[in-house]
Amino acid sequence: MNDETGHDHHHDHDHDHTEPPPDPALRVKALESLLIEKGLVDPAALDVFIDTYEHRVGPRNGARVVAKAWVDREYRDWLMRDATAAIASLDFVGRQGEHMSVVENTASVHNLVVCTLCSCYPWPVLGLPPAWYKSAPYRARAVADPRGVLAEFGTLLDDDVEVRVWDSTAEMRYLVLPRRPAGTEGMNEDELAGLVTRNSMIGVEHALAPGQGT
Amino acid sequence: MTLPLLPADDDGPVFAEPWQAQAFALALSLYETGTFTWPEWAEVLGAEIDAARRRGDADPGDGYYLHWLNALEKLSVSKTGLTPTQLAERKRQWRSAYVNTPHGHPVELSAAD
After folding, report:
1. How close A46 comes to chain B (CA, Å)?
2. I need a labelling partner for A66 at 20 to 30 A (CA). Which of A75, A154, A179, A191 fits?
3. Average pLDDT of B9-31?
4. Host domain of residue A30
5. Which one, of A54, A207, A62, A63, lies nearest residue A125 by Cα?
6. Using a CB-CB distance cutoff of 8 angstroms, which residues of chain A are in contact with residue B106?
7. A165 part of contact set with chain B, CB < 8 Å
8. Chain A closest CA to B82's CA: distance in Å?
9. Which residues contact A89 (CB under 8 A, 6 or more apart)?
10. For A108-162, how does the pLDDT look when each residue is reduced to its tens digit (9 = 90+)?
11. Is A167–B19 a contact, with Cβ atoms under 8 angstroms apart?
12. A119 belongs to the catalytic site
């Protein structure tokens, strides 16, 4: 059953197929779907387990990337120019972290990333996506009414702020560089990283204000 | 319910890849619904790790969840009546479903050839 553990990097420019995940992931999906059909596993119970551990997968070090970009102008410029290399320089491994692009929030632009429903989410950087992020309704609404979606997360933007919605593809995965919160001038990189949430890096929220962090 | 080699930090288990968390969740779920007992799980998983060591894989490390997955497949076969053939066929179907699904759409088993 373990005939292939490697993974080809096809970066096809036609989008009429989805790249299958690596062999062990397919084995897990096979087991899971068969056990659910047999009534031996409850999908809702599985979701609860996965939600419990969503922050425990991969290096989840996107917050470090963001914090470094906030304090180190040269790194920030490199990140904007060649995110894949700049992120890799912080010792990230994992295929979904490759081919990254960083989009920067500014006073006039707010970025929101919608994920496709496959494996294109950059989990090495962000950890596992929350269940809602992978839902078809979220994706559709984020494209049709990004301000409405943002408002539901309590993220209110001035009318003159442009909202850009980015659609991850097999070739490119996006990371939002949130704005550095006010009042953080004296904070070091570690402290700043504590303000950078996964949700801020997919653009549904701002980074936390000082005192809200973990 | 402890497993000495489980990759973990002070806050609990850690996973290198998403499928590992899914395999972890499946085992816990089967245990909670009584499909197997924890000693049964520990025994089969331990046997997988021992076999790997005999083959020369001294450190389970990244391979830990491959052993976990092997154990999960074996126990599912012995305890639920699933067959290795069913598992292999379903895996083939999922791969096919991915390949047949346009990018950005949900991958459903019904898309398999």
Report:
1. 6
2. A154
3. 85
4. 23-56
5. A62
6. 117, 136
7. no
8. 8
9. none
10. 999 999 875 555 677 777 777 777 787 778 888 888 999 999 999 999 999 999 9
11. no
12. yes
Please report the ipTM that was assigned to this predicted complex: 0.93
A214 belongs to a structural domain: no
Closest by Cβ to B25, choosing from A16, A50, A136: A50
Give the integer Cα–Cα distance in Å for A45 and B12: 19
B32-59 residue pLDDT tens? 899 999 899 999 999 998 888 888 776 5
What pLDDT is attached to residue A170?
A: 65
Dist. CA A100–CA A88, nearest whole Å: 10
Inter-chain residue contact B24 with A18, CB threshold 8 Å: no
- A190 and A84, same domain (yes or no): yes
Nearest to B4 by CA among B70, B35, B50: B50
Question: Would A210 be classed as within a structural domain?
Answer: no
Residues A118 and A43 in one domain: no
Of all residues in chain A, the one with the smallest CA distance to B73 is A31
| Mean pLDDT score of chain A | 83
Tell the residue number behind the tokens 């969503």, with chain if given: A54
Give the type of residue at A108. S
Q: Shortest CA distance to B88 belongs to which of A19, A41, A37, A3?
A: A3
